[in-house]
Specification:
This protein has 278 residues and is mainly α. It has 15 helices and 3 strands. It is globular, with a radius of gyration of 21 Å. The two termini are 25 Å apart.
Length: 278
């Protein structure tokens, strides 16, 4: 099925030559319709945000309202995966295989770097450790895994002094203030500080440049037509939709069946609000 729309409503598709244009009209296949709809949504959202910005001075002195507004950029009200029921279902030995089939790109990328270089920096350690925790790995599992991987490049004594083991115990609520930390959601990862040179944390769709992202998707054997579609979504800053498309391609699904908001939700393959299996 093809939809006929004014070409100005499909500029992103026209830019990447993914639609046929004639006499000011773009002929959009149904597989590309999401780009049109998200573009319309972004336009309406921008207009609404401008109205909100104009109203902001009227409420800026109200601390109750401002505290809520300041949290909106990283707000997430789905399952926080702090009390997973999956403990013991995935072992450390299964991680290499599971990372290829069930990890979202952000975690698959960290896992690959860790496996190849036997070292990841602080941002990646935080992001990956909490993800593994949300998957159901126990604290001892993660401690063992980190020790084994890091000690392929450093001796046990150096590892013991590095603070990496303390960090794992801290994230599981066994050190410091003993508060149980929850895995990062998509918005926290996307809006957080991106990786600098030598880092591998963050969201590949947000933080990788187009050339590196394309090489990574090729290495993961994503078909070229789907790579173009994903890159188009990324160019439009639709990072979570791009990740959903990656999920659909790697799981042979026409539709993920849920809105993607959390890396551990991707791993489980279901909605965080309904529990519906994807």
């Amino acid at each position: 099925m093809v939809y006929k729309v004014p070409f100005v409503e499909a500029l992103e598709l026209v830019k990447h030559r993914r639609v046929y244009v004639e006499r000011g009209m773009a002929y959009v296949p149904h597989t590309e319709l999401v780009s049109i709809l998200t573009g319309m949504f972004r336009t309406q959202l921008s207009k609404s945000l401008i109205k909100c910005a104009r109203s902001l001075p009227a409420v800026s002195d109200d601390e109750r309202i401002m505290s809520i507004l300041n949290e909106l950029t990283t707000a997430y009200n789905g399952d926080d995966f702090s009390n997973t029921k999956l403990e013991g279902q995935v072992s450390v030995a299964q991680l290499p295989a599971v990372s290829k089939t069930s990890f979202p790109p952000c975690m698959r990328n960290i896992h690959e770097v860790f496996s190849e270089q036997h070292h990841i920096k602080h941002g990646a350690r935080l992001q990956y450790c909490l993800f593994l925790k949300g998957m159901g790995l126990s604290m001892e599992d993660v401690r063992t895994y980190f020790r084994q991987e890091f000690c392929k490049k450093m001796d046990a004594e150096t590892y013991g002094k590095s603070g990496h083991d303390y960090m794992v115990r801290h994230l599981f609520g066994k050190e410091g203030k003993r508060s149980d930390k929850t895995p990062y959601g998509c918005m926290k990862i996307i809006t957080g500080s991106g990786p600098s040179s030598g880092d591998c944390h963050g969201c590949p769709f947000k933080h990788m440049d187009a050339d590196n992202l394309e090489r990574k998707l090729n290495a993961w054997k994503i078909p070229k037509i789907q790579i173009r579609e994903i890159l188009g979504l990324v160019a439009g800053q639709h990072y979570q939709i791009a990740c959903s498309k990656y999920y659909e391609v790697t799981h042979n699904k026409g539709d993920a069946g849920f809105g993607l908001n959390h890396p551990n939700q991707y791993f489980l393959g279901k909605s965080t609000s309904t529990g519906k299996q994807g």
